[in-house]
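ok posting inputs for the 2'-deoxyguanosine-5'-monophosphate job
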Amino acid sequence: MTDCIFCKIAAGEVPSQKVFEDDSVVAFRDLSPKAPQHVLIVPKKHIANVAQFQAEDKDLAAHIFVDVVPKLAKELKLDGGFRLVINTGDDGGQTVNHLHVHLLGGRKMTWPPG
Ligand code: DGP
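and the output
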């Protein structure tokens, strides 16, 4: 999508601190980190949010959670645990309308979030 910041980051048109990239996914450090480790895991395909997942995205969704999350958690040394957040839509606090999974760690998380 032409006017999407995460599409531009995924395409390398806008700089980011990438920590992972393969054919279908990119992960980079959040501009405004909420924890010592705060990475955004983003599919390269423009999907607005999880409510817009299609049947054809099942492999992509599995890849994110089965392959990418555990790999990054290990590389970032989040052995004590971490939090995944997927803000979805206005009420969910989503500000960038390109699906992304926040991977947060490196400190004790509180619950509930604000
Ligand atoms: P959300 O509220 O779930 O839509 O989170 C969007 C996150 O994206 C927010 O934590 C800040 C981050 N962000 C927004 N624009 C940029 C950017 O241009 N680069 C990077 N690295 N992060 C961004």
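notes: Residues 68 and 99 are 15 Å apart (CA to CA). The beta strands are 18-21, 25-29, 37-43, 83-85, 101-105.
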